[in-house]
Amino acid sequence: MAEDKTSAETVETVEAATAPKVEVQERNPQEFLEAFDWDKYEQGIERVDETKLKEFETLVSKNFVDTVNEEVVEGTVVYLTDREAIIDINAKSEGVISLNEFRYNPNLKVGDKVEVLIDIREDKNGQLVLSHRKARTIMAWDRVNAACEKEEIVNGFVKCRTKGGMIVDVFGIEAFLPGSQIDVKPIRDYDQYVGKTMEFKVVKINHEFKNVVVSHKALIEADIEEQKKEIIGQLEKGQVLEGVVKNITSYGVFIDLGGVDGLIHITDLSWSRINHPNEVVELDQKLNVVILDFDDNKSRIQLGLKQLEKHPWDALSEDIKIGDKVKGKVVVIADYGAFIEVVEGVEGLIHVSEMSWSTHLRSAQDFVKVGDEVEAVVLTLDREDRKMSLGIKQLTPDPWTDITGKYPVGSKHKGIVRNFTNFGVFLELEEGIDGLIYISDLSWTKKIKHPSEFVAVGDTLEVEVLELDVDGRKLSLGHKQTTENPWDKYEADFAVGTTHTAEIAEIVDKGATVNFNEDIVAFVPTRHLEKEDGKKLGKGETAEFKIIEFNKEFKRVVASHTAIFKEEEERIVKAATKKAAASADEAKTTLGDANEQLQALKDKMEASSKKK
Fold this sequence. Notes:
Elements: H1 2-18, H2 29-35, H3 38-43, H4 50-63, E1 72-80, E2 84-88, E3 95-98, E4 113-120, E5 128-131, H5 132-150, E6 153-162, E7 165-170, E8 173-178, E9 197-206, E10 211-215, H6 217-233, E11 240-248, E12 252-256, E13 261-265, E14 286-294, E15 301-304, E16 325-334, E17 337-343, E18 346-351, E19 373-382, E20 387-391, H7 403-406, E21 412-420, E22 424-430, E23 433-438, E24 460-469, E25 474-478, H8 486-493, E26 499-508, E27 511-515, E28 521-525, E29 542-551, E30 556-560, H9 562-611
Parallel strand pairs: 3-5, 13-15, 18-20, 23-25
Antiparallel strand pairs: 1-2, 1-4, 2-3, 4-5, 6-7, 6-9, 7-8, 9-10, 11-12, 11-14, 12-13, 14-15, 16-17, 16-19, 17-18, 19-20, 21-22, 21-24, 22-23, 24-25, 26-27, 26-29, 27-28, 29-30
């Protein structure tokens, strides 16, 4: 019997092995649950085969999520409200997530797969609460590192501005977007990016401080570089291109030509003079420019704007000629003159020497200032070299025309001190008529080392015309000549031999000085300071002095105290000498008379002898 049973089992096993296999389809656990009658099961009316229960447990463990474990799972968006997203994670019930957690993804829709973390298994309403933010944070660092290594493009939500850039939500991590990495062109309004979702490239990760730096600029640089190469390859001098004003500086304007930057120097913006480029262009303005030049690798491109217009000199009226009067605005002032814009882009120079008939040159700022509207006369005009010189003094008569009648030699006038040098003073008699007073013609008596000791700029002086050079347009003036020369009187009052009483003012080298009055300071040599007792006069001593030298031309006076008592000695000596000489003359006369008488007697005696 045992053998028969064994044989039967063997046959049955073989048949089972050789019989065609029937594919058993796995039932959906949800369908199984919906069709299963739990009441019959609990009452024992309907029993479930053990194998089917094991099959069900396998299906549940395979398809349903255990909400006890804190793991990141993938769920499907099944419904969206104004505030929440309903997510199916194959649990007993769907979970709820606030839409605030999806701000970085405003295009979230039903059917999207999202990663979530079970936050609360069952709230007070029996609802499963999920968190997408926490799930993203758990996975974020792995994703950020992977994106950085693979140089992948990631989406980020721009949360807010910060110092130097923006804060961007990338995979739930707050990354830093530097302002220089937002775009290839300078960004002036950061706020326009807040709340936007943009593509970025992870460019730097600091694992120690958990810092992430992203760039949007890096994504477009590659495309721009290709575009730049294409544009550079087609550049030619004289080519006209459309560009956008990218940046404005004090020296020029940077133009974006579509990935390639060029510079319009301030001098190439307008034919007219401008103080700053913003007078001509503004940021983000589109305009046509012409290529003027570029270097060998075309990395520096020089552009022009004014070259697209006809040069103003070419359009200057042929009616303008030398001698004509023109009106214009002062645009620039230099030390040597002022530039006048006669018409837009056409300037003429008024040299400072053409601003006044005066030969004493002043600064152009004394006559005009920037912005003044002035009238001038065309002095020279060179259309080929595009140069024009103007004059404003020609609008008034030349004051030197009748100079001989107005300022003859010897005439006296008043003028204003305009300037002075080491050798004299420049005096303006009237506009255009200047004269020079040499330092030696300022005073009869004062010894002046510099004119500033005698006058100040702006003072009024009376002068006399000493010389007149019409051809050289020069006047020689004198101030001292307007008064009588006191030295004419002093020449008599202080003649050589006159005696005066005064005090020793100063002891100087080789002598001393004596002030006879405010004009005459006499010098007393050391040997002439000796007193009668053999001592010398000292400072502050009063004594008599004799003038021993007077020179009116050089205003030199020399005096002597010693000569006072030396003269008395000489007088006594001279008197004694004179007396002795008189006595000798008298004795000589008496002897002579006797001789004459004897001679007469002798002659008489001889005459008597002859008669006999």
